[in-house]
Write a structure and sequence with these properties.
With 166 residues, the protein is of the alpha+beta class. The protein folds into 2 domains: 2-68, Ribosomal protein L9, N-terminal domain (Ribosomal Protein L9, domain 1, 3-Layer(aba) Sandwich), CATH 3.40.5; 73-165, Ribosomal Protein L9, domain 2 (Roll), CATH 3.10.430.100. The protein contains 4 helices and 9 strands; from the N terminus they run ββαβαββαββββα. The strands form 3 sheets. The chain has a 4-stranded mixed beta sheet. Strand 8 (125-134) and strand 9 form a beta hairpin.
Length: 166
Amino acid sequence: MKVILKKYQENLGEIGEVVNVKDGYATNYLIPKGIAVQATRGNVKQMELVKKSLQKIEAKNIGEAKKLAEQLSDMEITFKVKTSEEGKLYGSITNKDIADKIAEEKNIEVDKKKIDLEEHLKEVGSFDIDIKLYKDVKVSVKVNLEGETEPEAKQEEEEVVAEDKE
């Protein structure tokens, strides 16, 4: 059965594409979920009009993403974190932490889902983190983790307590 995609479907196609799928897949999944419509002559003409307007929106979104990438390029974020003597963090730095820090420093809202972090940062050091702003628009942000060892803080507290007792 030939259908026209109304939404982007991974491994199937882009919006407005006419694709050939199995009848059951189209009638039981794609059409009821609003992902596709049956490819009739009228629907094809209508989708061509929709496709033209989507191209304008797409160009606008890409332009905005490139502006945002320009603002975020060469950005360095520094976190001061408590660490063990080996340089391991107590806890970790997540996508949300990075997004919050960008919002705090640059006043730019970045969706935490767009931050490409394979696993949470758990060690002191510098990391280049990719942010996928839009389909093909990516920017790399440098994240620095500076550690403060926990035992030193405890020693200082113990010294202060010892001085108070004297």
